[in-house]
Amino acid sequence: xxxxxxxxxxxxxxxxxxxxxxxxxxxxxxxxxxxxxxxxxxxxxxxxxxxxxxxxxxxxxxxxxxxxxxxxxxxxxxxxxxxxxxxxxxxxxxxxxxxxxxxxxxxxxxxxxxxxxxxxxxxxxxxxxxxxxxxxxxxxxxxxxxxxxxxxxxxxxxxxxxxxxxxxxxxxxxxxxxxxxxxxxxxxxxxxxxxxxxxxxxxxxxxxxxxxxxxxxxxxxxxxxxxxxxxxxxxxxxxxxxxxxxxxxxxxxxxxxxxxxxxxxxxxxxxxxxxxxxxxxxxxxxxxxxxxxxxxxxxxxxxxxxxxxxxxxxxxxxxxxxxxxxxxxxxxxxxxxxxxxxxxxxxxxxxxxxxxxxxxxxxxxxxxxxxxxxxxxxxxxxxxxxxxxxxxxxxxxxxxxxxxxxxxxxxxxxxxxxxxxxxxxxxxxxxxxxxxxxxxxxxxxxxxxxxxxxxxxxxxxxxxxxx
Length: 467
What we know:
Strand content: 5-15%
């Protein structure tokens, strides 16, 4: 019994020893099998997806390199589309060369890796279109110079208007129950109230001292006085200054014109003189020469003569003064015709404002439509390019399938290629819509502003002319 137990014990020891050796023998095979299974379960590591490379990648990253790569932030739409195009983009496309490059690609790539390799070869150049969109100026700008005699002059214009009023004794004479002086005062005040607000205005009277007698001639002929000097928006003060003017003496037109020089600011760019007189020079001066000197001076001054109920001989002489001063002579024979003369400039100005408005409206529309056209063309060109890229990528995909068969992840890769096309299309469409809307809004606003300003000034001039 004891011997049998010992035999069984020895047999068990031998058996266990054999199992131990068999386990040691099989251990490497089990380990190798485990490593092989683990290798099959581990997906291929993607190559760098930097499409700015000019050469396609020929190696796959090792797991160690991949683990050391820092996480990258997602790119914006513009950054994606601004990447360098592929080697065979645009006019460089050559199907045979593309196929030769595809043959060099490593095997067992993922869909993402295939996509990046294909883009390194075939991505089209979207940079010009993205740059146009990014730098596009959507603001419509129209900056036409407004008519010179508008309510407010352009800042580049410094206009000086001199009004010279004859206060000689003959201005006491009445026409239709009203003295020439009263008619002249009313017309001048009405005229002044319509002048540009930032124009410089001076009112000077002459012959307002002494009497018409010979003994007071020298006093009267030396009498010329600026009774108002200010801006166009201050001419309401002129009425008070005019109230004290009474017709008394002689007619020193030359002396009054000579004094205009001291009234003009040296910074003046445009100067106009309006002389209201009912007669010729009676103080021995030479108004023709003085008017010529004013017209040829550093600040060129235009001299206009308004002959108020002047006889034929007087009109002839006053016309010479106006001609030498680069202006015009106008004869008026009553207070209404005097007002009409001073108002006729505003009828002309209405036409200028109408032209300004129509020109500005046309430019606003033209600019808007031109910008809209550029935006539309950029969208269309970019989408055509996306179609071209898509076609080339599909040709490459079909070639890879022919060469590598089911090893190509067809469905996933086709989906990524299609998404790439949709991405470019959507970017072009959405950016176009945004910029188009901004241009339309700006163009319409500028058009409306010009129309409103033009209509307002035209209406203001109509009202002033009729008052």
